[in-house]
Task: structure prediction
Amino acid sequence: MLSYAWLIPVFPLCSMAVIMLLTHRNRVLSAALSITAVSISFLYAWAIAFTVWGNPEVQRFSFDWLNLGPSMHIPIGIQIDGLTAMMLIVVTTVALMVQIYSLGYMHGDPRFSRYYAFLSLFTMAMLTLVLADNFFLMFVAWELVGLASYLLIGFWFEKQSASDAGKKAFITTRLGDLGFIIGLLMIYTGCGTLTFGGVFEAVKTGALGGAFLTTAAIFLFGGAIGKSAQVPLHVWLPDAMEGPTPVSALIHAATMVVAGVYLVARSLTIFMGAETAAMTVAWIGIITSLMAASIGLVQNDIKRVLAFSTVSQLGYMIMALGLGGFTAGTFHLMTHAFFKSLLFLGAGSVIHAVHTNDIREMGGLHSKMKTTSITFLIAAFAIAGIFPLSGFWSKDEIVAATLGHPVFTVLTLLVAFMTAFYMFRLYFLTFTGTPRDKHKFEHAHESPKVMTYPLIFLAVLSVVSGWIGLPWLHHGFSSVVFHEEPHHAEFHYGLAAISLLVGLSGIGLAYLMYYKRRIDPDRIATSMPGLYNTLLNKYYFDEAYEVLVIKPYYVMCQGWFWFDQHIIDGLVNGAGAFGVLWGRFQRWADETFVDGAVNGIGWLTRGFGATIRYLQTGSLQNYAFIVFAALVILWILR
Amino acid sequence: MTPFNLTQFYADWATILPECFLLLWACVITGAAVLGRTDESKSGTFAIWTIIGTLATAVWVAVTQDGAAFGGTFVFDRLAVVFKEVILAGVILTAAASVGTVSRLRAHRGEYYGMILFSAVGMMLMVSATELLTLYIALELSTVTLFVLAAYHKTNRKSAEAGLKYVILGGISSAILLYGVAILYGLTGTTELARISQGIQRQFMASGSFPPGLALALLLILAGFGFKLALAPFHMWAPDVYEGAPTPITAFLSVASKAAALAAFLRVFFVGGQPAQLIWIQAIAALAALAMIVGNATAIVQTNIKRMLAYSSVAQIGYMLVGAVALDPWGATSISYYAMAYLFANMGAFVCVIAFAERTGSEEISDFSGLSRRSPILAGFFALFLLSLAGVPPTAGFLAKYYVFAAAIQKGYLWLVLVGVATSVVALYYYATVIMKMYFPAEQTEGGFPVARTLTIVLAVSALGVLLLGILPGPVVDWIKAAAQSFVPPT
Amino acid sequence: MSGLLSWMIFLPLIGAIVALFMPKDNHRLIRGIAFVATLLPLILTVVLLAQYDPSTAEFQFVEKAAWIPGLNVNYHLGADGIAVPMLALTTLLSFLAALVSFNITKRVKEYFAFFLLLETGMLGVFSSLDFFLFYVFWEVMLVPMYFLIGIWGGPRKEYAAIKFFLYTLFGSIFMLVAVLALYFTSTPHSLSIIEHIQRAPQMTRGFQLFAFVFFFIAFAIKIPTLPFHTWLPDAHVEAPTAVSVLLAGVLLKMGTYGLLRVSFPMFPEATRFFAWPMAILGVAGIIYGAMVCMAQTDLKKLVAYSSVSHMGYCLVGMAAVGSVAGISGCMFQMVSHGLITGALFTLVGVIYDRAHTREISAFGGMWIKVPVYSGIMILFVLGSLGLPGLSGFVSEFMVFLGAFPYFKITVAIGVVGVLLTAAYFLRMIQKMFLGPVAGHSEGLTEINFREIVAITPLAILMIAIGVYPALLSDLIQPTIENLVRLIGA
Amino acid sequence: MEGIGLTHYLTLSAVVFCIGVFGMLTRRNAVGVLMSIELMFNAVNITLVAFARYVTPATITGQVVAIFTIAVAAAEATVALAIVLLIYQHHRGIDVDRINFMKW
Result:
């Protein structure tokens, strides 16, 4: 059973290859292949989960991928423990739902088959990522999910914004990956292995430690910053919403973006061994969380609100992990995957119906699309942390993890408040009230069953998936994802009550402002224009990068190119390509060298030749004179 | 005086038999031409057969006779064999290449070949001379006939000008050389190279310093040879004469005449001047460097192909003399090998110019444009010879350069080698420019043309030489090496 | 089979000579000859790989015969773990490039004659064990290359051809001087590369530094490393497609090959001394090349400059002189860059043939218009920017992993190259392949069967090495380990 | 030191040689140039004969060389004069300054 677990990513790989090479002309067959493959993986994942959860042993299978002696010995393989099993379930479940959903959503797209091929590619890579037993294989899969993300964000590449977004996503995450690579290099240099077991062993024995470990850990975290869209590399995720909505649900909400969280969770031993690094992680997490949540308050694009919500929730998880809350982080990872993918798919359903992303053009859709509305509402309650939905349990664990760090606790609750607020703002503006765009409203309709069934399925999971963490179960969620030894914060009834209260008050505020219209949101916005615009423009991150990084980089590249053409090549032409400047290529030379930057040896040689030729006057007496002069000179120099 | 000895007499004349044979037929050809008893095509064929006969005789002599003759003034050693073969090869190729040129002469067609043969006699004697007077006479014999040949195009103003420049500068250099010889004679009391060497050595041993006039004498002799070799800065005549002289004669001048002078140079400086090497070796290195720099730099800016090749020849002599700084068998071998490689490549290149000029009447580099389409064979040969001159493997030129640089490196003349390598990049530029002109233009230039049959044969032989010497040089290298070891005292 | 290497080297030459005697208008016949004359060495390569014993660092398939006894020059061939992959790469790329060249219609006979002569030169360089022979092949290669660029090249072909010729000759002449110095400092005088490696410990430090620098100039120009690289964009851009393929795929590797074959084992002390400067040069090349790529508007020039960047990885890898991973990474990068850039140049040629322009801005939305071509192009671009699962990633990772323990900060800066590479390639992809159909994309026709055939082996190898690098590392490992031992860092 | 010795001959010869050089460089007339060259040869002959007398009185090497030199110089002069005639036909004059059609 377990020893063949490597087959899980192989199924989608095969479906991808077959679609790409053979069936890309047949849409139905392609989709069927892809869904079948992911279904098999899905079943396999559940089977594994049940095997592992009853049997808390870490299972490893590996072989030598490359062995060059001590300077590079990389065995690769898979490792199955509770965390992996949980991730497998998350990935395969959401992937399956999304693929089914896409049958409806992507219906009629000219590149339908290619879409499924890319989804299969992504699924394969993501499954590999969670199965890997070492940082190297993880990095490989890490890059491949990035590729899949790039391809899917830019899936509708005719649109300039879509292809821009894809590029931005790839490059921004790759910037983070640089940190990942350097982290890997440091770790390997430090302990000569990249397998999780080996590295953690080294950390525990102290073979790897001190400032070196801290630096390595921070670099490693760079990967997570990029992939999980943490500050300051979060800018790509909102833009990534240019992709098809199911893709956003799968990649940019449930799975790929949590890879960073998974990375930190997986290597928590390293971070725990480096205090400073862990605090860095926690701070980046909470700052991201706060910032994204605050931006989410004012956005008007339904998917962007969700995107910022995702960023914010990811920050939550990261923060929890940074504070050592392994169970909290991973638990929230799972519940979030379900309810956030549900939210996205719900949003997709809405977009499918009204053909716009702007919530200002929606309103009152509940009456038209009940299933979507209700499932969306369930998810919204879940994310707001309302008892007894899944979000309540996991969020509670996170709040519990901040105990002992009062600042974090307060900020966490603040984020929880904002989350509840913007989520219900979104809900009320979309589904309740009066339709603001009559034309769009009239054409709206409930989505087909292939789209609503996945919503329902995910809604169920959004409700029940938190119950694994029920306080009266032995060790709760930590028994599922146990890390080293199960440690589980005692369920804190007081905290739970407070966080529930905070969530409810957020909902209440939203209710007052957007449902009852007791408070006019526009007035608040106009009363604080600076703050409002800052939030609306996402703290001007994109603008700052444009001005501070991208433009200067372009200019610098042009500058180097000029330097290359004129200075280096100029010197070479001067030094080497004799006469090129002056003879045959006179015109070219004039164009290129007007500045006279080059007076190299080539010119000199040519010039020398052109000068001494005039010694050859044609007069034989001059020749004779040179002969005698040479004799005299030689005699003197003798 | 030693009493008359028939055996000795026989041995002496047997040794010089090839020269005698050649001289005889030179007289016959010239005489017949003067008397108007022959037409020029016959005398050409006749000249070639004469040289082949001479070659055969020389081989026979080489096998049967060995060593000095005429009381040590003349020697038929292995070095002489090597250079005689080179010279005779040059003469044959020149004679064969002259057919077209001669047929366009208005008069004195037969004497042309006679002159070439007389000159060849002088060169062959020069190669064997081990005594300064003999050497001088031989040198003059070869040069004076070349004066005539250079001006042979009587109706061509350039040819006359070439003749005048050549004869006057030749006269001066001859006087300079002779002055050097005279001083050397005064210092050592002899004109025999071996005894001069001993004399210098003896005086050096006795006084701890060289006699005061020695440097002057060697310098004057060097200048004299420098003229013959067209070594910078004594090369000034060369471009003008090369340009003005009939092209086969240019080829002859640049190849055979230089080979002979080189052999004489080797004898005088490697044997006679060997004890005094401290005096002249730096000068040689400096002149070699100067020749490489001046020759190559000036060649770049030329527009006339013959002139360009003239400057390139100046540079080539510079490369040869790089080998001279070694002053040991290595050095002598490298120079000899270079001379041989240069013979084929330069001869081939000039013959290409002849073939081209015969059909187009032009000697301008720009007119070579598109030659590869008009006459692929000619362009191919020319490219091959130019690449050999540039020293690109697998041609003979590469091994030759390798050899001379090796000789210099061995003695630690790194700077000289660096000058050599740097200038050979310059050289490649102008050779490659010609190749570029021939091959790169896409548009078809006006009609193709054939190459005369004799010229094709000459080209093929030269190309064969260039390639064989480059690819399978083993036997030749061994042969030359043995020759060099036989006459240069190892250091 | 005796004389395997000789057959490999000289079969193309024989082909060239045969082709020269064929009627010049019978293009089919000449192409057929070229096909056979490049296919046979490829088949021999398979035999070579099958017979090669990868468990030893010894030279195999050794052939030795006196050539010029007077100069101690021998005809000495042999192959070890460094040479075998290069030989295989050369025969493969030559064969594929010959296929690519079938659309040449101008002066076909001369083209293939030069082409085959070039292959002989390249194979000769990779199997010579005698300095003289090595140098001869090294130079012999220049001549056909000069003609190939000069006759069949683009608008500035004369300039590019002569620049290439002079620049490379300039470099190699320094090598000649160093070879001569080696010759005369050895007793008995020898030109055997093996013997010089054996006597390496006796060379003085000063001599090693001198010789290393001289060799390095020659090799650095060929690689090309940073300040010596400007011949490359010109030559690559002007050369016809197949020649660009060989230039980038094989000729650039000669520089790194030379360093590994000659400089490293022969001058260990100097190698250790210059390791850090080499790493700096390598990293500078990576970053600089990538940045200059960003400013390109001509697709072919972009690929050309990307070579400057990618060969920087080789230099960084080999600068890790004590690390098997680093030097293996260099070897991997050589092979990988050969495969990927060879393919990229072929693909550039494919659109140039159809659209007669290579301006990036002249295209748009090609993925819609020519999906198969676009898919292949994107695959190779991904390989080039180091996507895992493709060979480029493996080599880059090996290079970094090998070099990091030695030059931490330098390598960390070099890692940025991975990002910059992605930046310029993605920019190119976006402009040419994404967006609405625009410009010359309108009239494009899909890549044809012959071109796909020429690309497929490269793609397969790229993926195979990327997925299971032991395929290659098994071949080279003993040799590299031996090399590291000789350097003795 | 009594009477005239070797040094005097050598000095004389050097002076004559230099006069020849000077004449050669300054004469505009080709025949004048040729005559200057003859002067140079004769200077050398003086040297040779003087050396023969003072250095090797027992042999006549020097004298022999001198005689040969005279012969060779005569031959050379013959050819030279023939060429000067040729030049005259082309240029209608024998001013060496004007004979610079080929240069550079």
